[in-house]
Task: structure prediction
Amino acid sequence: MKKALLMSLFFVLGLVSCTKSNETPKQDPIFKLVSKYNLNFPAEGGVGSVRYTVQYPVEGEQVQYSCESDWVTNISVVDSIVFNVEPNIEPTERTSTITVTYMDQSHNINITQKGNLPDFDVHFEAKAFNSTYYGRQGATAFNYFIILSEDGVQYESGWEYGKVYYRLDLYSDQTGFIDPTLPEGVYQLDNSGSGEAGTIDANYSILLDASNNELVQIPFSAGEVVVKDGRIEALLTLKNGQVHYVTYSGPMEPGYPTDNPNEILSTFSSDYNANITGGAMDIYYRGDYYGLGCDVWLLNMIEHEDGYSGEYIQFELMVEQSPSGMTQDAFLGDFTIYEYSTEDIIGKFLPGQIQNGFPLYSWISRCDAGLLDNEYRAPFKSGSLSITKSGSTYTFTFDGKDDKGNKLTGSFSGGIRLTIDQTSAQ
Result:
């Protein structure tokens, strides 16, 4: 009996041992893309397909996908991952990614599609951008003059032999007073000089071609400039019939190497004080020149009207906007320096700056026969100004400092030499 029981126990253990040794070990799924997954498409688009395999699949689990681009459509997953790429109507290349996932394993299908480039004779890829922001003088919109070239220019009228320069005069409905970066938009060549938003003034737009060691100026007969996502694309037809496709990617802030914001502009070596009488003043009414909802007045004062010589003082003032346009003596009152912040700009005068090699806004300098002496100048960078009138004599009393910390104090008294309404052409 004991023997029979022992034999039975050995038989049962043998069965258990045999059952364990015949089991197949469990395998984790293996998900792979087995065909090319970096795919290139023409501008016309097309159909893409990528094959995949799943070894040791898990019952009930499926391959999933995701894609954020709306131009990659009709994605399906059966034996392969199949999708459509829609036509690209833009001239710029674009990219997208389809992410495919099986359980905890993911792979990317990378899609690149060429841009729909126009027909052209020359493709010029500009490496440099220079520009001047001119505000709204003589126009209904805001003026941005840009230069696209290989190496840039030192100042607006600059050029070098062996180079080409695309000079384009653009108008936008966006003011550039606080941020003069070239606004996004579409600009069309305009031969009428309307200065309307979305135009390129043909009168001031030209190709300067000095590539053959002679300077040739070629006007444009048609053109479109598209500014979008930090990129400029211009399709320009020259008067000689050639079509140039000009592209640029990069910063679009205005300026030239001569406009160094950290440069000390004052040439004064000590404090300045002047008490000028019997001078003459030129008044320029600029309307809402900067698009800030206020009137701008530029006042130029010269010590000696005869020969236009002697001490020269200039202020650019921000005054409450007049509904009737230029109003006599609207600039009388007290002003403080504007500090380019969110503060109210009315009752301010603008600190002196250099743009394109020329002094702008508020300065002290000297003239000789109408020519400014660039070796004798100081910008107002802080301070206050008071303007009063007695009879036909205006008196300016100022108390400020330049960018060296020199005091700029004194007064100027004189009558009006001329008054110009610069909004008459707007």
The chain is about 5% helix and 50% strand. Residues 2-21 form the longest helix (20 residues). Residues 4 and 290 are 111 Å apart (CA to CA). The radius of gyration is 36 Å.
